[in-house]
Design brief:
By secondary structure, the chain is an alpha/beta fold. It has a single domain, classed as TIM Barrel. The chain has 9 helices and 9 strands. It has a 7-stranded parallel β-sheet with strand order 7-6-5-4-3-9-8. Strands 1-2 form a two-stranded antiparallel ribbon. Helix 3 packs across helix 4.
């Protein structure tokens, strides 16, 4: 799949559309709407031009206000599927909370729990995914064009094997690692997951976490990939170190070359965005 994206070379949102390049650096903030503090810190980073987009949680305590802010400010928002952290919103139905708790207990049981398929939870997974997509549509006025997962559980076997992520949406791939950074079995598993995802969904070329911020050479390598590839970097502005780096401008001192994308864009196979 040929990917292309837009990048901007400063935090100036008055620029007309940015610069189209062969690569793009997407800084995406997770957990939008989880709590008021999370939303406010993320909004500050967005206003400073240090993030491209957000992944929104629904049925959480600040989901409604966060959605209103995103629509008002034109913030690019995708859906952050949540199977593992208790729904804290007042409007979350009891049956939704009960099914989430059943799934969460399984997925948190051990480190390989998401690799296993649970036949007895098929209907609960279907219900949770459908309910969160419907709630996102209600809050944001449109179906999510991009979906990832809290604790990356959108990559669990029950979601992938049942094809629960809507076809042709952008989906977050597995973490990218350099050769030798992880075991062969780990890299083979992640590559298999990405191949399965790519049959139905659009993916970026690479995916990393902003943390750890040190050594600085790590981020230099990640940012340099964006000159020729579509790179997503997840961040959590509630983390004090990441918040300071983003809101304080440290990212602009380090980023150099490609700049930060003004939204989350990947190209379809025919080249359109």
């Amino acid at each position: 799949m040929v990917l292309a994206g837009e990048s901007r070379f400063s935090s100036n949102r008055g620029a007309a559309g940015g610069v189209v390049t062969t690569g793009s650096l997407i800084i995406n903030a997770d957990d939008w709407g989880r709590s008021r503090e999370t939303t406010d810190r993320t909004l500050e980073c967005w206003e400073r031009g240090s993030i491209s987009s957000v992944s929104a949680m629904v049925f959480m305590e600040d989901s409604v206000r966060a959605a209103a802010l995103a629509r008002e400010r034109g913030i690019d928002a995708g859906l952050h599927l949540n199977f593992t952290t208790r729904f804290s919103g007042e409007n979350s139905p009891a049956v939704l909370r009960e099914r989430q708790q059943r799934i969460g207990r399984r997925l948190r049981r051990h480190r390989f729990a998401q690799v296993m398929f649970y036949p007895e939870l098929v209907r609960s997974f279907e219900y949770l995914v459908s309910a969160q997509i419907d709630e996102f549509r209600r809050l944001y006025g449109t179906a999510p064009q991009r979906i990832d997962g809290h604790h990356h559980m959108h990559l669990c076997a029950n979601v992938l094997l049942a094809g629960l992520l809507p076809r042709r949406t952008i989906a977050r791939r597995s973490f990218s690692f350099e050769p030798g950074e992880k075991s062969f079995a780990n890299r083979f598993y992640r590559r298999s997951i990405d191949q399965l995802l790519s049959r139905r969904n659009l993916l970026t070329d690479f995916f990393f976490s902003l943390a750890p911020l040190a050594p600085s050479a790590r981020l230099d390598r990640i940012f340099s990939l964006a000159r020729h590839s579509i790179v997503e970097v997840e961040t959590h502005p509630l983390n004090p170190e990441e918040y300071t780096f983003l809101a304080g401008g440290g990212i602009f001192n380090q980023i150099g070359g490609p700049g930060i994308a003004s939204g989350f864009r990947v190209s379809t196979p025919n080249g359109s965005r």
